[in-house]
Specification:
The chain is an alpha/beta fold. The protein is 43% helix and 19% strand.
Length: 649
């Protein structure tokens, strides 16, 4: 009986858990190298991906209603009605003064002109416009800056620009910077104030209008095709159109050019519909300033996730990419990495589109790709190592099985004994490296009988071969006893098998002693397939008398039966691998075919008959290698007399 497994001691259990945790920790350690590497490569590889993912996720985000700003646009109709000259726009001081009074009267919260009022743009002193600005009390004008290299060797970059007309400056709330910093790919995604402005005592227009300071880059809420920026025509406001005046009441108003796509156009991450139904990823500068202002007034509803939280987010997905994929199955590991990558991007996109929290999706993709590549390489190495170990193990087993086969061949007759008046032949073919079949031919001398044994162990392979070696040793130990006792030999073999096997293992056996001079055959058949006795006249007899196979019950007695081989008779012993061989159509070879083959070839000698039987079995099964062990022994009595021993196959 199988013994119960010994309980695992608490120290052993703790050691096992510690080993498992250590192995899991080793799987996570690469994240300490791969994540910093991904962050280091971000400016080169991942930032362009960050931008693309930002644009895609931003386009999925619904735009809330525009409640704080409105653009008074100088459109094509307005420019057609303005008196000459059309350019520069700052020269239309009379119209701008009238517009300012209209906006102030309509209750605009603040008025900002995105028009450059530098002195060179004004044909005459703008007294009327300055008066309108002073009356309104809430007008803001703009100034633009440019970078110039300081004089002298090694001079750095300085901000420089021209101030607007002094009288307009004095009449308004002041001039404010409208420069915006765009990403390297030419797209504006975040409002990033230049830190050098504070040193110059300057402020940006959106910050001034919103009344807040943007401490760091703020993702801008841009309009969409479905929810565009509210724009009213400069011409309609100037004409006092009630709908246009109602649209500006209580809002921050930005006045600027909205029609000329050749100047002051900024690329944005979301598709826009401009005048004339044109859809493009660009907005006029005044509308960009309005979008930035609305974003700041709302308190920056879209925010970049902080540095520590971003690193934690990246680290969590990297650890998942290192820990989840199975190392022993590279294909499944690759699919798991792809699944994690898609899940990470989906979660990042959901945070951006639904919650307004922006994470670097491109950097996340790069970090997971690096971790996934590490996992796939590790999986490949692990698989190669296991395959190599398995190959070494197979080679070892193959070597041991070959050695076992060589040893088993030593148990089989090395030479077929030459018995005057008889023709003997035998062969054992294993379905595996070693066989559970066994045959033996022992000539006990001139005065002794010829022993013929064929046996078959239940099962195949090495266990069956080991048991058969015990049977062989037991037979040979009994054969040296004088006089040889057939019944006692089989009883002893039965006891040997019972003592060395479990209750489900057994051996079928046919053991016979042939008295050579008379042809008298005494035999014990212990559950083995019926031997065939072919008479010289072609009659085929089966030796059916016998009892149970050996190895079932100790102390069993076996009856001895007799037959006689007359000159020209042939005896065929075989195992069930012959008669139970099956064709591709699942038909059994059977005893009848065996008898026909024996009858057709026995007259040509024992070897010819035995080889014909094996050839017919192979041809019938259609297999190069049989499914079961095959053993055949043929004994034919004739008048031939030969002293030359025949080699066993």
């Amino acid at each position: 009986m199988r013994e119960p497994a010994a309980p695992v001691s608490p120290p052993a259990a703790r050691a096992s858990r510690a080993a498992a945790l250590a192995a899991r920790g080793r799987r996570w350690l690469p994240a300490l190298v791969l994540l910093p590497l991904a962050l280091l490569l971000r400016p080169v590889l991942w930032t362009p991906l960050d931008h693309r993912f930002f644009d895609y996720f931003h386009s999925l985000r619904p735009v809330p209603p525009w409640t704080e700003v409105v653009v008074v646009g100088i459109d094509a109709a307005t420019r057609a009605e303005l008196p000459r000259p059309v350019h520069p726009l700052a020269g239309h001081v009379t119209e701008h003064a009238a517009l300012t009074r209209r906006l102030a009267g309509a209750g605009a919260r603040a008025i900002a002109f995105d028009i450059d009022f530098d002195p060179q743009s004004l044909a005459a002193p703008p007294a009327a416009l300055a008066a309108a600005f002073a009356e309104a009390g809430n007008v803001h004008i703009v100034m633009t800056l440019r970078e110039e290299r300081a004089a002298g060797a090694g001079g750095g970059m300085l901000l420089a620009g021209r101030a607007p007309d002094a009288s307009l400056m004095a009449a308004s709330r002041g001039a404010f910077v409208v420069n915006v910093r765009i990403d390297p790919d030419g797209t504006l995604r975040r409002f990033r104030p230049d830190p050098r402005l504070a040193g110059l005592g300057l402020e940006t227009l959106p910050e001034r209008l919103a009344g807040v300071r943007a401490g760091r880059g703020v993702p801008v809420e841009f309009p969409s095709v479905e929810r565009p920026m509210p724009v009213v025509s400069y011409r309609e406001v100037l004409a006092g159109d009630p709908a246009a005046l109602a649209a500006v009441a209580g809002r921050i108003v930005l006045v600027g050019l909205v029609e000329d796509s050749g100047t002051d156009v900024v690329t944005v991450p979301r598709l826009q519909r401009l005048a004339g139904g044109v859809e493009t990823r660009a907005l006029p500068g005044v509308m960009v300033l309005a979008a930035v202002t609305e974003t700041l007034v709302r308190g920056a509803p879209i925010r970049d996730v902080g540095g520590a939280a971003t690193v934690a987010w990246l680290l969590a997905w990297c650890l998942a990419a290192l820990a989840i994929p199975p190392r022993a199955r590279p294909v499944m590991a690759g699919l798991a990495v792809i699944g994690l990558l898609l899940a990470a991007l989906a979660a990042t996109g959901l945070l951006h589109a639904a919650a307004g929290r922006v994470l670097p999706a491109g950097t996340l993709l790069g970090a997971i790709v690096l971790c996934g590549a590490w996992v796939l390489v590790a999986a490949h190495v692990e698989t190669a190592r296991k395959l190599q170990a398995e190959q070494l193990e197979r080679d070892r087993v193959r070597s041991e099985m070959a050695a076992a086969r060589r040893m088993q061949e030593m148990f089989l007759p090395g030479t077929i004994p030459a018995v005057p008046g008889y023709d003997l032949w035998g062969e054992n073919i294993s379905s595996l490296a070693v066989s559970g079949d066994y045959f033996d031919l022992l000539d006990l001398g001139a005065d002794g009988p010829l022993l013929l044994l064929i046996a078959d162990v239940s099962g195949k392979g090495l266990p069956a071969s080991l048991l058969m070696s015990n049977v062989q040793a037991g037979l040979h130990s009994q054969a040296i006893a004088r006089p040889f006792d057939l019944a006692r030999t089989v009883a002893n073999l039965n006891r040997l098998v019972c003592e060395n096997t479990d209750e489900v293992t057994f051996v079928t056996l046919f053991l016979a002693e042939l008295h050579k001079a008379s042809g008298r055959l005494r035999y014990v058949r212990a559950g083995h397939d019926y031997p065939l006795l072919l008479r010289a006249d072609g009659t085929l007899d089966r030796l059916e008398a016998g009892g149970l196979f050996i190895g079932m019950m100790p102390g069993m007695d076996y009856d001895v039966h007799e037959a006689r081989l007359a000159p020209g008779d042939a005896l065929c012993l075989y195992t069930d691998g012959v008669t139970e061989a099956r064709s591709p159509g699942d038909e059994e070879f059977g005893l009848a075919r065996l008898g026909e083959t024996l009858r057709a070839h026995a007259g040509r000698g024992a070897a010819a008959a035995g080889e014909a039987i094996i050839d017919d079995v192979r041809a019938f099964s259609g297999l190069d290698r049989q499914a079961d062990d095959v053993t055949v022994v043929v004994l034919r009595r004739d008048a031939a007399d030969s002293d030359t021993p025949r080699e066993a196959s």
